[in-house]
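Researcher: Let's try something more involved. This one mixes different molecule types, so please make sure each is placed in the same coordinate frame as the others.
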Amino acid sequence: REGDGWSNVVQGRWVQLRQEQGLIHAETVNVQTDWNWLADYLQVGVNLAGVVGSFPRDPAMQSAVAACAGLRVFRQDPWECLAHFILSSTKQIVQIQQIVAELKLRFGERVVSAAGEVVHAFPSATRLASVSESELRDCKMGFRAPYLRDTANLVARGDCDLERLRTRSFTESRAQLLALPGVGDKIADCVLLFAYGFPQAFPVDVWVERVLRRHYWPRHRGNLRSLQSRAVEYFGPFAGYAQQYLFHHIRTQDRRLASSDVANGRAHSNRISPNTLHVLPG
DNA sequence: ATCCAGGACCACT
DNA sequence: AGTGGTCATGGA
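Model: All components are placed in one shared frame. Result:
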C-alpha cells in the first residue's frame, strides 16, 4: 500500500496501481506494448459474477459476499508464492511482511521505480540457495529457515520444476508440492490457489477452520483433513474463492469489533491480504 | 505476563 | 492412520 495506490514488482517490473471509478490505472517505468502480464497477475479476465454465483447460498457465505464485493484472487509467481507461505506458518501477516521485506532488501534484485526510488524484487530460489541458514535466521524467520533453504535448493537445482507444474494436474501438482520440506496441506493448497490458479484449492488455516466450525459444522469432531474434504465438496468448483471471501470477512469483522481503527476512522481502510484485490463490481 | 499467530514435522500410539 | 509436543519470534 502506497499513498492512494499499491506498488509491487511483478515479473521484474515495478508497477503501481490505482483504482479509479471502476477502472484500474497502472503505471510502469517503461512503455508497455503488452499488458497481458498484468492482466494475468490480477486475473481481471475471471468472470467474478459467475464465480460468486456458484457459491452455496447459506447465511455465512452471503454475508461474506456482501461484505467483500469485488474480491478477486491474484495469480502470483510460483516461487515467490511458495516461499511466502513457507514463511507464513504460525506467523501473523504483519510479521510475514516484515520477514519478506528483510529478505528482499538483503537478497533481492534492485529495481528502480518511476520516481527513481530503489526497491527490491523477491529473491530467486537460486539466490536464496546460496545463502547460509544463519543469514536467513537474521531475517527473523526462526525455525522456518531450514525449510526455506532446503526448498530453495531443490528448486534451484531443478529437482522440483515449478514451471513444469503449470502444465500438470491439480492432484499431481499437489503431490509435488507436498514433497517439499516445510510444505504441508495448507501451504500446498495456498500455492495451488494463488500461483497455479486452481480455483478448487481450499486452504484451511486457523481462521478458516474457525469459520467452518462456528458457522458450518459446529459438532464436527473429525480432524482438519476431514473438515477440509467436507468444505471442498460443499463449496464446489470455486471453493478457493469462497475461502477467500470467508477469510477476508472474518478478519475484517474481528478488527471492526476489537481494534481502535473504528475510533481512528480507518475502519474501512483497505486491509487486503497480498493475494487479493478489491475491484468495483463490473 | 500470557496467549497466539494464514503450520509442518517427528515421535509416539 | 491419527494425535501431542516442539519449533522462533513478536504482535496483541
